Amino acid sequence: xxxxxxxxxxxxxxxxxxxxxxxxxxxxxxxxxxxxxxxxxxxxxxxxxxxxxxxxxxxxxxxxxxxxxxxxxxxxxxxxxxxxxxxxxxxxxxxxxxxxxxxxxxxxxxxxxxxxxxxxxxxxxxxxxxxxxxxxxxxxxxxxxxxxxxxxxxxxxxxxxxxxxxxxxxxxxxxxxxxxxxxxxxxxxxxxxxxxxxxxxxxxxxxxxxxxxxxxxxxxxxxxxxxxxxxxxxxxxxxxxxxxxxxxxxxxxxxxxxxxxxxxxxxxxxxxxxxxxxxxxxxxxxxxxxxxxxxxxxxxxxxxxxxxxxxx
Length: 312
Known about the structure:
- This protein is α/β, with parallel strands linked by helices.
- It has 10 helices and 12 strands.
- The chain folds into 2 domains: 13-171, 2-Layer Sandwich (Heat Shock Protein 90), CATH 3.30.565.10; 183-307, Rossmann fold.
- Helix 3 runs antiparallel to helix 4 (137-148).
- It is elongated.
């Protein structure tokens, strides 16, 4: 994404936040659902920059909106990598009273004490900051934290590094859900040919393995360029909503339809925004949320098969 696109995207985020257009949907969740994918993503980026990246996983449960929390932590991690020329970035959490403090440590230039409050304002960057950031990330993070009722904190040592943190309320670990159907019950669903498109290699491989274990023949793609050709021979398509280069699963659905492929489509997303859910449903598609649960997918496949049988 170039600087102009980043600027416009950041300004749009701020306008939506200030205009009350984002509807947070907090829930109890295992924190590692958010931390683990971010750790994998930024470990690869740190490696490219020659930095050490350390992440500490956690089994605790918290009460938050996972999409907004992810955005906050993405901003912290992105800043840490951008402003750290050598050394390491540490990503982890610790208990703090009744909250959990999720922290990002870096060995960057640090922030002068009189600038610590200013850097959360739009277009403000620390005087020691390297790189070409636009100064919007922390302003967006603070607005999202305020929307969630979470507190942000900052400690910094000029010349040595900084630690940014978001304080998230702890949640009780829920009781175990009712047992899922046994493997032989899941296998009862009639297989077919499925096309799946997801730009996250790990998620793509996991979904492919699951479908193949249920007897499906799967074409798995990380990019949508050849999806239309494969869609014409498939019985079902499963598209991630957020694809590369700003494309979405809805865009891909429109493209395969324009190419003459009319098949049931399931959209996967971690974004629980109600307006997005409504757009997907208005397009006649099924929406499932990440992290994907096998039982939810199984039930969706059963519905797809039932609809197809009724229309035959």
